[in-house]
Amino acid sequence: MTTLLDLKSSVLRQVQRSQSLRSRREPPPTAGSPLTHCPEPLPRRVSEESAEFFERTSAILQKQENMLRAAQAECQRGACTVPPPQEHVDQSFIPDRISRTELDLLYEEAVYTVVNRVGVPPPEHVKSDEELFAYLIKVFDMGEEEHDIILQKVQEAKRASFSLRVSVMKAKNLMAKDANGYSDPYCMLGILLGQSPREAEEKKERKFSFRKRREKLEKRSSTKEVLPARCIQVTEVKPETLNPVWNEHFLFEIDDVQNDLLHLDIWDHDDDVSVAEACKKLNEVSGLRGMGRYFKQIAKSVRANGSASSGSEENADDFLGCINIPLNEIPVVGHDTWFKLEPRSSASKVQGECHLIMKVFTSQRDTTLSRKDSNVSIHKKLLSQIVEYEHAHVKREPYNWNGQVCPAAWTVLTHHAVQTDLSPLQQAIIRWQCYSSHHRAQRVCYSLLLRLLRTIDAEWDPPAVRGDLERQLSDSFRLYTEHCLSLMKNMRQVFPCTSAAAITRYELMLRGVGYMQNMRAFKTVCPLRNELHLDITTAVKKGTAEWYESLIARYKPEEGTLEEQLKKLVVVVDAVCADVQRGQNIYNKLFYSAVKVDFFSIAYRQLEKQVADDVNVAMERVCGTLEQESSRLTQTMGETIFELFVSLKILKSFREFLPLKDAKMLALTVYHNWFKSSIHKWLQIIHDRSCDRIRKAVDTDKLEPVQQAKHSSSAVEVTACFGQVREIWTQLAWPDSAGAFIFITRLTDNFCSEAVWYSEMITHKIERSQLGRDHRSFTVQLCVALNNTDHVRVSLGRLPRDLDWPAVERAMEESCGAEGKEQVYKALNGQLFNMDLDLQREAKRLIALLTDKMLPELRRYIQHISLSPDSINNDDAVSPLMKYLKDTMVLITDNLVKENFSRVLQSMWELLLRMILDAVRENRGVPVEFYNRFQYTVETLLQFFHAKGEGLSLEDMKSGDYKVLDEELRLNKCSSFELIEQYYLEKISHQKTLKHTRYGRVSVKCYYDAPEQRLTVEILHAADIIALDANGLSDPFVIVELCPHHLFPTAKSQRTQVKLKTLHPVFDELFYFHVSPEQYRHRFACLTFTVMDYDWLSTNDFAGEAVAPLSDFCWPGRPNASAAGKSVQPAILHLSRSKPSEKPIMRMLDARTGDREAQEFVRRLKEIEKSMEEE
Fold it and tell me: Same domain, yes or no, for 1021 and 1122?
């Protein structure tokens, strides 16, 4: 409430102050006010300081734009291949290096892997052992002797035992063997033992089947030669389908990986107990005797089925196809493919395909590490050693390494993973652990880490990850997350916007973190870290706070003088603004798209709070200093405070990018209140420097038009100065519209006073320079000066819009109601109105200087017209004046703007009218031809100044002095009788306007008898007659007569009885006048009622008069002119007492000394006027 009252009081004070700017400069000049004294020469140093002041201020105003440009340039510079800065992290994140002993054991494992390679290598694998050994020697930094020792040890060790894992997935498009159009397929598969080359050749000519012909089986010496029982496996039967899906997995031990063969049969199940059942029972027993017995049963069943005719065995299983796959043809990484079913002989008809997944691996390894460590751990160590070596030998952009290794490395790693039977998921986890761990010590490309995470997610199978592997994966996620959070905290140093490579890395890192927190694997192994975004928020907040503290530690804004402290604060705030700009432009997009964290809001709110706290403390010290009486705000201090304000405003402007709920709770919301007292003093400094600048502009102005304009350099400089000051206010962007009223009033007052002061200085400059100047050059300079004043006035006409007065009015209306709005409107517009008046006054002074220069010539030409004899033609008499005017018009038209040209034309027109009027009045009573000539002159000038619509408007010209002159000329051309008639017309017109005068009134009744041509006048009574006697009363009587006398030459005046000592006489007297129609038809024909005060010893005194036109009583159709005229209502005529000598007609008649009628009329009126003067 107190604030509203203060604002109201301020409004009232501003209204009281908004008198004319001229009157405010009239008090004696003081040293502190540059506007209260005449211009003096401006010291050169002061003018230079003012110029530098505005240059520095302009630089401050351009700060935000420069900041945006710098941010864009920064991003463009970052587009080059500048390597990103080092990513310094906590040493605790870096894994320990492996010992030499462990390295030797790991080397043994690698050599063992090379020696025991199996499978068909892909084209990219290295096939030479020597080449692989040479690579491993470099990786493990081994000597030749050490290598030979370890190689010999491996060669002497027991060779690896191999196993085959087969997954029978499904089949498709099988042959239909049952009557229903389907089959009931199942698979029987096993390993055929290694064969000699000759047997292998024979095998190519025949197809093997588990169901052997009887004769072939009988030739075998033992069942073992046919097929070992331990190698037989069978799937489930899938009823009634041609596209069975089994998804069953089998494991076979391999004796000879180079020569053994995988054989698979697909049968249609028909009998109750078939080979499938026999195989199942067979696989349930142990011991060679049991196996042999059951195998004989299988063979017997096979012989029975094989020897029976197609019609004798209804329940025999039908053959659907087979597959033979040599183990030495299986790729290193295994098979995952569709195999076409083959017939067992040329007579067999089969169709369809079967999908198998196969992989050969070692079931037993004779190495030291394999006996004491897990395959996962060993493979991780091997991969880590290779990765470290490979990365160390990357020459170009090692920070951008995508993890790709050489063929030799890939060969060793692939064989080791296959041999140790690592699943794709285990391999993915190991690669992630290895690369993410290596990354903490030496950077790799984040896209590699993201790709590894996606691989884990694609292969994820929770039951397959238990125990140590789960714990290790959890630790790797934790360490990587903490590593990334550490980098996020130091992102401004590690991922600067100046490096496009760093920003790209940062984006990929964030995408990796964002992807990781949504992974099934992460949620499974790290169930307690389900709010990773909160950790990211904390890291960003902490990193931002530490970065700001580093700024403070770097610039130390708490040290030095108060001004030095503020300058350091400006640097700090500008650095914060630049950081916020980068956050909004770059970092926020990365964070939001990758991890759905609003980086900008977090960082901005943190920085905004810290900046607000520091600046608030500093500004409290400033305000405390400025409040001391002996303290004043220096210019440099003012500039620093202004720059600090602008910097804070820029920082606050970023709030528009915040969510609405966050933008309402900012520490900088009321930052402007910290600067109130300082801004007042700052505006005074701006005003002083503006005055210096204006003074210099006037001193250096040569009053020559600038290019393509009609004003000079000083006007350009003044409007530029005003524009800069307005821009200063715009940049201040004072958020409190109601509180801004005081500043806007101050600014408006400064603008107006500076504009008026400028126009005064220009006028003084013109006045001082007019002596000794030729007419033409002086006229040009004067026109330029006029244009300067108008140019400044027009520029200030935009103040309401530029300073946003409507916003202030609305704010005051909300604060103080309609009264506050009206007072603001009056205060601000009052200042502008007074300024406009003062500028118009100065413009009139300049125009007066111009017309004063023209006055002698114009007077000479008017005199020429006046003295020209009647024999000279009117055109010849007027032509010298018109030629002079045309020459003058050409000059001022070329040098004046349109509005000033109109003003000068108007001034010249009024001057000529006054000069002609003076000439006419000085020559009253001369022949009519004299007035006709001047009438012609006026009409010629009228057309000249109108210029067919291009000049002054006829409406404007035919007003004021023109009407007076026109009337003067018209009346001077009239006869004396016509002038007298005009006199009575004016009196009749004046009578109609009278209402309740202080001279009283008279009540009369007039009616006309047309047949008798008799006018009857009843004077009834009078009221409120003025007191003309010493007793406070009067002795009134009324004189009634027909006027003008020349129209009624035979009519005599008549009078009533005198009524003594009264101001309200009652007469009730009748008077008769003869009036013909020819007489009453004139508009000027009238009755005059003159009220006189009777005096015994002196002349009677004039009390007042009234007139009544005869047209009101005598014209046919009037009620007074009928038989019932006597019954009409009385007329109330108000009395008046005007001095006849004040009328132009009186002066014209008086000048006609040779006219008896004119002199007689004047004499009678002068007697009345003399009577009035004697009172």
Answer: yes
